[in-house]
Amino acid sequence: MPLRILYINYGSQSGVTDAVLLRLRRAGHEVRIYDPVAGFLYKRRIGSIKVPNFRVDPVIATAAAMARFRRHWKAWYVHTTVAFDRLTARCERAVAAETPDVVLQSGVLFAPVKDLEHGRHPPYYLYCDHTRALNERYDSLPGIDPPIPFEEGWRRREVLVYQRAGAIFVMSENVRRSLLADYAVPPEKVHIVGAGANVVPQAPARPREKAFLFVGRNFVAKGGPETLDAFATVRARHADAELWMVGGRQPARSPTGVRLLGLRTPGELAPLYARAAVFVLPTLREAFGLSFLEAMSHGLPCIGTRIEAIPEIVAEGETGLLVPVRDREALAAAMLALIGDPARARSMGDAGQRRAAERFGWDRAVRLMLDVIERHAAERARGSPAAAAGV
């Protein structure tokens, strides 16, 4: 039964938006997309430049963020109750205009409608890679934004959105645990569907070079400085080794053996994944870790940190090695272990490729979501009380 689905999200989300949209439409559903954050940010683009956004909502949201977060207001601009309520009002207008059969919403920066009571709006579903409660528990680390401070008003809003959703689809067990412990969501409402790689392998396979690949848009938060320090130790033992670094906010100068490549498109990234020998990303913060899936799908062994959902993606000792956050010595040891043992690295890469194919992927993730959404729609059509209750 084809459904009219309104997909409410914000931005491209590292390719997640396009991946989900494509598969919803392939399944035969009519999908409209709405981004309430578009035009809401404190800056707007005119041609090639960005200028302050003096529309009413952004001005009010900016004042609220400055008052709440002080010097970190830009990082957490949309994380005030003022922004939540104003973005929710935008969503409600979109839902009223589109009259969808169901709503699929990415994250909980807002609610799909103001009135979340059952029966007064189309059923809605959530797709989440993280929760605010998880962010609030982050350690404060120099060089990156602090954790979001707890706010009772925000938590009340979050709890209502989660608890009144028809179902919540999550990328990881890490998020599922938070929903159950921090938001008292019934376990039967939460479904782990995972995610997929947005940079897919290109044929034919290319010869591997003695190179590490780092992919991280935010250089410091993704562990860029630690990677450079650890690579210096590696380079002292392997003078022919290289480190290829993709992302933004990189250093002005490139140390010996390091290639600073800046930001790259998915098409430009694929050959790098195909040619490197080891993927390394000792990230300090990571809601999920799509780049690990991309590396594994290309047959790369992975070195990452033992945080968040990364241990669910990278099987330690089988598809890669995990180290503590900001432990440069452990990171260097892991890099030396894999670059110095090509056979072990290839074996881990092959195991990672199998793991990525068996346990992850966008076709699988969206199919798992649609299994629930379509079942609920069929039950509602038959007047099932369970579907009306969103279980």
Indicate the topology:
Elements (H helix, E strand, L loop, with lengths): L3 E5 L7 H11 L3 E5 L8 E4 L2 E4 L3 H14 L11 H18 L3 E5 L17 E5 L3 H5 L15 H12 L3 E4 L2 H11 L6 E3 L18 E8 L5 H14 L4 E7 L9 E5 L3 H10 L2 E4 L8 H8 L4 E4 L4 H4 L6 E4 L4 H12 L2 H18 L2 H20 L3 H4 L3
Parallel strand pairs: 1-2, 1-5, 5-6, 6-7, 7-8, 9-10, 9-12, 10-11, 12-13, 13-14
Antiparallel strand pairs: 3-4
Keyword list:
single chain, 391 residues, alpha/beta, Rossmann fold, six-stranded parallel sheet, 14 helices, 14 strands
Could you characterize the architecture of this molecule?
With 391 residues, this protein is of the alpha/beta class. The chain has two domains: 221 residues, Glycogen Phosphorylase B (Rossmann fold, 3-Layer(aba) Sandwich), CATH 3.40.50.2000; 149 residues, Glycogen Phosphorylase B (Rossmann fold), CATH 3.40.50. It is built from 14 helices and 14 strands. A six-stranded parallel sheet has the order 2-1-5-6-7-8, with helices on both faces. Strands 11-10-9-12-13-14 form a six-stranded parallel sheet, sandwiched between helices. A two-stranded antiparallel ribbon has the order 3-4. The longest helix is centred in the C-terminal third of the chain and has 20 residues. It is globular, with a radius of gyration of 22 Å. The relative contact order is 0.12. The model has no long low-confidence stretch (mean pLDDT 94).
